[in-house]
Design goal:
The protein is of the alpha+beta class. It is built from eight helices and four strands. It has a four-stranded antiparallel sheet with strand order 1-2-3-4. Mean pLDDT is 85; it is low at 1-27.
Length: 184
């Protein structure tokens, strides 16, 4: 005789012997403890995807007329950066935007390294080179990274402008976003 004390196994023996015990759906608290498996919902999947930082990978940009030289470019360019570069290139002045200065800013500010023959070039301290590196300024015989070092590094204005366009395209500014027909 059990009296008024209930044992943990009592629910198994309550009711009809042939019926299964009543179960409740798993709660998030129990699921989080790892005792019960919980299916991932579409909402869970969406939350996980949205919480991830969106960042584009570094790309290599060929430097025309500089055999085997490539720039390592971070194409993660914000609209605020674009606005600042346009302003610094004279967009809001009476003479208007200086296209080559803007292109130099795009190239100079997005460069995170230089490669030759597929190998990254480092300074004596082991740091990646960019246009502000003293070594680049010395090689180009310039004192200002933008626009002077960028222009000297490329050698021709059309190549600087072409490089800037390629960088902006890699950043997604030329992307076309397609709509999808939901009936398909």
């Amino acid at each position: 005789m059990r009296g008024s004390v209930r044992l943990m196994s009592d629910p198994l023996y309550d009711g009809d012997e042939g019926s299964a015990p009543e179960t409740k759906p798993p709660t998030k608290a129990k699921a989080a403890s790892g005792t019960l498996p919980v299916e991932e919902t579409n909402l869970d999947r969406l939350k996980a995807l949205i919480s991830q930082k969106v960042e584009r990978d570094v790309v290599l940009l060929e430097v025309p007329d500089r055999k085997d030289v490539h720039l390592r470019i971070s194409p993660n360019i914000t609209q605020a950066q674009m606005k600042a570069w346009r302003k610094n290139a004279g967009e809001e002045t009476k003479h208007g935007l200086d296209a080559i200065k803007f292109a130099c800013m795009v190239v100079g500010q997005s460069c995170v390294g230089v490669q030759i023959d597929g190998e990254e070039v480092f300074d004596e301290g082991g740091n990646s080179l960019n246009f502000a590196a003293p070594e680049i300024l010395s090689m180009t015989n310039t004192t200002k990274p933008v626009p002077d070092a960028v222009k000297a590094f490329f050698g021709t204005d059309p190549h600087v402008e072409g490089a800037a366009l390629a960088i902006l395209e890699a950043a997604g500014y030329g992307d076309t976003i397609e709509t999808v027909d939901p009936t398909n």
